[in-house]
Specification:
single chain, mainly alpha, Rossmann fold, Tyrosyl-Transfer RNA Synthetase, 2 domains, two-stranded parallel ribbon, 13 helices, 5 strands, 54% helix, 7% strand, binds adenosine-5'-tetraphosphate
């Protein structure tokens, strides 16, 4: 029985931002101390929405550079590109035959991502959670760090594991992965609209802080970040209905490793201009060094490619074993 294995990933879709960092990558860095970690660049997930091929290649290098710049250690962890391990696609197909259409129809993220034009969305976008289940179960990951938006997909992964084990009478073949809910998992919202999450694909650069932003860009973006005309309150409940204010104060609280209450205490009764200067300072301190390291790592793409190749080799060993067992269980490829 595997005890402590994590699988997580980030789509190489460019513009890595503060949300990806505080909501995911920073937590990966902490998790590597306690778990055996598989961190993947989820390029097969990325292509559920059209990606320019050359841009995708660049984004893979950029995202891997960001992993390294943030402190993920390639000697301790397996960092790899999803498409370099064919087992992901194969197990996803097998799970397509296990999962039920009704299960997928309940996935709210598809509804959000496909928007009003569902008929025009790719089939891949619809079956994305099946590939995610394959990603996790291929390595028999025991734990998956998830934010709110991914909880439903992890439930689906568990349902697939249960049905597979039952249908094929192989009790416990797939262990049920547990969510790792990082305390106060950061959900960082757009700087322009506190109801929308900060996102790589937002057309406006002013909606997000990129990990490669310069000091000046951070200052400008925070200056222009939407707030309201009221003063900063002293109580958390007074932030209700003030999404932009809550978001900015929340970001500062995370950066200072404080509760929202404590952050409010420092600023209650003040307006946002002084607050924004301090927030910019904290962001610059945290983000600018990462951006510099990303640029350094990107200067040597061959080093990054080597790390990904080594990672894929290790990942393929585990993947091939799982697939061999699955073939046996299903009566495939004698
Ligand atoms: N705004 C966010 N706040 C907190 N966490 C976030 N994540 C993404 N946005 C935020 C977390 O980052 C990890 C990697 O995300 P992803 O690239 O796999 O996909 P995503 O969630 O679709 O990210 P984006 O930035 O919103 O990209 P696009 O615009 O391409 O869809 C995940 O753990 C995610 O929760």
């Amino acid at each position: 029985m595997i005890k402590n294995r994590i699988l997580s990933g980030v789509q190489p879709t460019g513009n890595l931002h503060l949300g990806n960092y505080l909501g995911a990558i920073k937590n990966f860095v902490a998790l590597q101390q306690k778990f055996e970690c598989y961190f993947m660049l989820a390029d097969l997930h990325a292509i559920t929405i059209f990606q320019d091929p050359q841009q995708l290649k660049n984004n893979v290098i950029e995202t891997a550079a960001a992993f390294l710049a943030c402190g993920i250690d390639p000697k301790k962890n397996i960092i790899f590109c999803q498409s370099a391990v064919p087992g992901h696609s194969e197990l996803a197909w097998i799970f397509n035959c296990v999962a039920r259409i009704g299960w997928l129809n309940r996935m709210t993220q598809f509804k959000e991502k496909a928007g009003s034009n569902k008929e025009k969305a790719s089939v891949g976008l619809y079956s994305y959670p099946i590939l995610m289940a394959a990603d996790i179960l291929l390595y028999k990951a025991t734990h998956v760090p998830v934010g709110e938006d991914q909880k439903q997909h992890l439930e689906l992964c568990r349902d697939i594991a249960i049905k597979f084990n039952n249908d094929f009478n192989c009790k416990d073949f797939f262990q049920l992965p547990e969510p790792v809910i990082v305390k106060e998992v950061a959900r960082i919202m757009s700087l322009k609209d506190g109801k929308k999450k900060m996102s790589k694909s937002d057309d406006s650069e002013y909606s997000r802080i990129n990990l490669t932003d310069t000091e000046d860009q951070i200052i400008q973006k925070i200056k222009k970040a939407k707030t309201d005309n009221d003063l900063i309150p002293s109580k958390v409940e007074d932030l209700n209905g003030r999404d932009e204010a809550r978001n900015l104060i929340g970001i500062l609280a995370i950066l200072k490793n404080q509760t929202l209450e404590a952050a409010l205490k420092d600023f209650s009764g003040k307006n946002f201009s002084e607050f924004k200067n301090i927030l910019s300072d904290y962001l610059i301190k945290e983000i600018v060094p990462i951006g510099k390291k990303i640029k350094e790592f990107k200067k040597d793409p061959n080093n990054i490619k080597k790390i990904l190749k080594d990672g894929a080799e290790k990942a393929n060993i585990v993947s091939n074993q799982t697939l061999k067992d699955v073939h046996n269980i299903l009566g495939l490829a004698l």
